[in-house]
From TrEMBL, chains A, B:
Domain ABM: 8-78
Species name: Algibacter marinivivus
Gene Ontology terms, MF aspect: monooxygenase activity
Keyword entries, A-Z: Monooxygenase, Oxidoreductase
Record protein name field: Antibiotic biosynthesis monooxygenase
Length: 106, 106
């Protein structure tokens, strides 16, 4: 942990989907594009097998609140509950430490 | 957010792998099995596409430290750096809020 480490925030979104997810992928792309333009957005990672995990990183908790209330994002959340997700869980976290490994290729 | 919400901790492990990951899957299973027996372990979710994301949840930050130092886990971390991962990032986070959606099937 660097002495200069500045805490930031993570939203861990874990989900399982319905069988029919028509329209999901277009919406996911649109929402990712919008998130990246949003104030305080830092980074986003996604992967899905049996369960889907999307983690987005934000400068402050206020940035997360504003993003949660963004109008097109609200619409997507509503559509997600009605059409795409059988279950989801959202966790708001403070990132307190971080370390990274990058392989030196010979 | 429930008024009774008790914070806990998350380890977000994000990674990219080498092409040859011989032995990885056996080790991943073994390590998951060991983690679940470890003091303070709560839950774990994993998914991998271009990037792999594994999030494990723990009662306290001390539980995470002890798990990081567990001997077979140390061995796996070492093998991961040498053989399997081209890059990884570990974030230690405090989970401050959580909410869940479960679809009511008609």
């Amino acid at each position: 942990m660097k002495q200069t480490f500045k805490p930031y925030y993570a939203v861990i979104f874990t989900s399982t989907q319905n069988e029919n997810i028509e329209g999901y992928s277009e919406m996911a792309n649109k929402i990712e594009h919008l998130a990246k333009q949003q104030k305080g957005f830092l980074e986003m990672d996604s992967a899905r097998n049996e369960v889907g995990i999307t983690v987005s990183y934000w400068e402050t908790i206020e940035d997360i609140k504003l993003w949660k209330q963004q109008s097109e994002h609200l619409e997507a959340q509503q559509k997600g509950r009605v059409d795409w997700y059988s279950w989801y869980n959202v966790r708001i976290c403070k990132v307190e430490r971080e370390y990274e490994f990058l392989k030196n290729e010979l």
